[in-house]
Amino acid sequence: MTTLTTTPDGTAARRPSPPSSPAGARRTPRQGGTVLAVPALVWYLIFMVGPLLAIFVIAALHWPGMLQPVSFAGLGNVRTVLDDPVFWDAVRNTAVQLAVALPVMIVCAYMVGYYVAQRPPGHRVIRYLLFIPGLISTPAKAMVFYAALSPDGLVNGALQSAGRGALTDAWLASPSTALACLIALDLWSGIGFTAVLFAARLSSVPDELGEAAQLDGAGHWRTMWTVHFPVIRDYVGVVTMLQFLWTLFGSAQNVLLLTQGGPGTSSTTLSFLVYQKAFIAADLGYSQTVGVFLFLTGLAGLLVIRRVFRQTY
């Protein structure tokens, strides 16, 4: 399309007009992201928020079984739980498990991950070997530890062969060692998998940082903790959160498969107590009251970990 324009000498000249923009370009682009997210939001509300709200509702009920009549208990379940010594034994065992397993797992996994990230000879094979515990199902892991720690298992057999028969014990059936065996299983299954995650993150750190630190006289130990660790501090926090949640909420399966919470209550954890009261004792109100305490503990732990590992720059 052309237009007529007048030149300074009074003659007319044709000049092409600028191309008009398409009609669609003048419109505001559609905001269709919300519509596309509706199925995921509905799924989240039904299967995530719904069960969470149900925990708080059931915790206020007296419900002695799935097919039994339900009555309102109010805060009665809370008083019952707080007066129960089994609950406090579970709190103590869970606190010990977290206080021992989480720091040891994160520190050891970070050090192993740093070593693998330096690409030593055979580092690819090492990555696969470290990842093996993450590929084994929980029942298979439990069977491995049962075979090693049973009275006639590998550990006692090795002690007998070494002339240390006085040190043999029924490790999973002893009140002094049952919880330690569960913590050992957490460490064995968690350190290698977490180390692979750390190695993947450390591989993205520029090599120039470590080289500059070593030129300044820093050894591998100082380079690992004063150079690389601050760079991936936020990632360490994320991995610590994941392992905290897994240890807090996932210990029930290991307890169920190896010790059944015993002997006595020496290896009963909060997550196993939720299962035990719901499916064995058929006390759903008590079970979900413990579930509320477990949820609040997890939320508080996440906030603390996030604050500890937040970036300071």
From TrEMBL:
An example Gene Ontology CC term for this record: plasma membrane
Membrane topology: Multi-pass membrane protein
Composition-biased stretches (Low complexity): 1-15
Transmembrane segments: 36-63, 95-116, 128-149, 177-200, 231-249, 285-305
One GO BP annotation of this record: transmembrane transport
Major localization listed first in the record, in broad terms: membrane
Region annotated Disordered, chain positions: 1-30
Keywords for this protein: Cell membrane, Membrane, Transmembrane, Transmembrane helix, Transport
Localization terms from the record: Cell membrane
PANTHER family: BLL4140 PROTEIN, DIACETYLCHITOBIOSE UPTAKE SYSTEM PERMEASE PROTEIN DASB
Protein name: Sugar ABC transporter permease
Organism expressing this protein natively: Streptomyces acidicola
